[in-house]
């Protein structure tokens, strides 16, 4: 009996040591992942349940940080249809929701932002869009860093100062971009008939793009001042009631649609349009990108999906 008890104690001690070893190994692995700023968490499922309360089937809450980690934004920025959507979402988070992200989600946010900047540096497109995003993020971080102790900033203050330095470096890289003229010597935009040039310009949804295009050549400058062009732009973004409140007459007594447009964008949000968006299934409350398979029990899952704007996506996590 005495020898059996000693043997049993020996087994218990080995079991205890084994458990301690497993816990220590897991802790070292977790610390290693947390110390690597470039490390991201990848999940097999590219969708997430959006639930606002505990139920028998689901416990806890779905947070903005959890959704940001799970919805594969790293791949989305490589898709031209989703790029503007992700950039707008990053901008909205930078304005007011940065402190709502967990530490891992904040790391993923900065990693995705770095990938966005590198993509713009390579293809030399959407430069102004990313400049505005970086400026918004930098302004928000300046406010949060100055209010340390009063707001929730996950991580050491030195880490955030380093991230702010990275943002300044990215801004400098974007400012130093030299647009290279393509070697293609075929038909250019200015070689097209005027009616086609005007038709293409009507597809631009940002008045600043029209102004920039008009600075390319004198002929384009004349087209970019077309009153009908600016009228359609105003009517696309704003309601008749909003337009009537901001009427501006030119020296000739006509409505100055160009000045009205820039006055309206300072007063009202512009209409947003994206090639592809995140979708919420009304039947099973699963959030995913369009075309992503998810375990929906509806007979016709496609009819249950609702497209979400970036602001509507953030509003899902405001409890």
From TrEMBL:
Q: Name one GO biological process term.
A: protein ubiquitination
Keyword terms of this UniProt record: Cytoplasm, Nucleus, Ubl conjugation pathway
**Domain of life of the source:** Eukaryota
Q: According to its UniProt record, in which pathway does this protein act?
A: Protein modification; protein ubiquitination
Example GO CC term: the record gives: SCF ubiquitin ligase complex
Localization (cell): Cytoplasm; Nucleus
Q: Which PANTHER family match?
A: F-BOX ONLY PROTEIN 32, LD30288P
**What is the annotated role of this protein in its UniProt record?**
Substrate recognition component of a SCF (SKP1-CUL1-F-box protein) E3 ubiquitin-protein ligase complex which mediates the ubiquitination and subsequent proteasomal degradation of target proteins. Probably recognizes and binds to phosphorylated target proteins during skeletal muscle atrophy. Recognizes TERF1.
Q: How does it assemble?
A: Part of the SCF (SKP1-CUL1-F-box) E3 ubiquitin-protein ligase complex SCF(FBXO32) formed of CUL1, SKP1, RBX1 and FBXO32.
Please identify the protein, giving its name as recorded: F-box only protein 32
Please name the source species.
Regulus satrapa (Golden-crowned kinglet)
Q: What is the lineage of its organism?
A: Eukaryota, Metazoa, Chordata, Craniata, Vertebrata
């Amino acid at each position: 009996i005495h020898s059996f008890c000693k043997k049993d104690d020996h087994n218990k001690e080995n079991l205890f040591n084994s458990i301690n070893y497993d816990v220590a190994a897991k802790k070292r692995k977790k610390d290693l992942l947390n110390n690597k700023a470039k490390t991201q968490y990848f999940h097999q499922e590219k969708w997430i349940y959006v639930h606002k309360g505990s139920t028998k089937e689901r416990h806890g809450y779905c947070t903005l940080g959890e959704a940001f980690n799970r919805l594969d934004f790293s791949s989305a920025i490589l898709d031209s249809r989703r790029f503007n959507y992700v950039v707008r979402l990053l901008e909205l988070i930078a304005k007011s929701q940065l402190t709502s992200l967990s530490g891992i989600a904040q790391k993923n946010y900065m990693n995705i932002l770095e990938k966005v900047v590198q993509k713009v540096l390579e293809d030399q497109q959407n430069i102004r869009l990313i400049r505005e995003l970086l400026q918004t993020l930098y302004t928000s971080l300046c406010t949060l860093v100055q209010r340390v102790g009063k707001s929730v900033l996950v991580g050491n203050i030195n880490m955030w100062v380093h991230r702010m330095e990275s943002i300044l470096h990215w801004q400098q890289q974007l400012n130093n971009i030299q647009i290279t003229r393509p070697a293609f010597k075929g038909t250019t935009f200015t070689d097209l008939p005027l009616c086609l040039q005007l038709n293409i310009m009507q597809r631009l949804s940002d008045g600043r793009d029209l102004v920039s295009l008009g600075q390319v050549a004198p002929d384009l400058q004349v087209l970019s001042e077309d009153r009908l062009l600016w009228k359609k732009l105003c009517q696309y973004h704003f309601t008749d009631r909003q337009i009537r409140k901001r009427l501006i007459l030119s020296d000739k007594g006509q409505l100055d649609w160009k000045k009205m447009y820039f006055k309206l964008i300072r007063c009202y949000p512009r209409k947003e349009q994206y090639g592809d968006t995140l979708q919420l299934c009304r039947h099973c409350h699963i959030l995913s990108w369009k075309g992503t398979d998810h375990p929906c029990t509806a007979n016709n899952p496609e009819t249950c999906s609702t497209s979400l704007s970036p602001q509507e996506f953030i509003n899902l996590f405001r409890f």
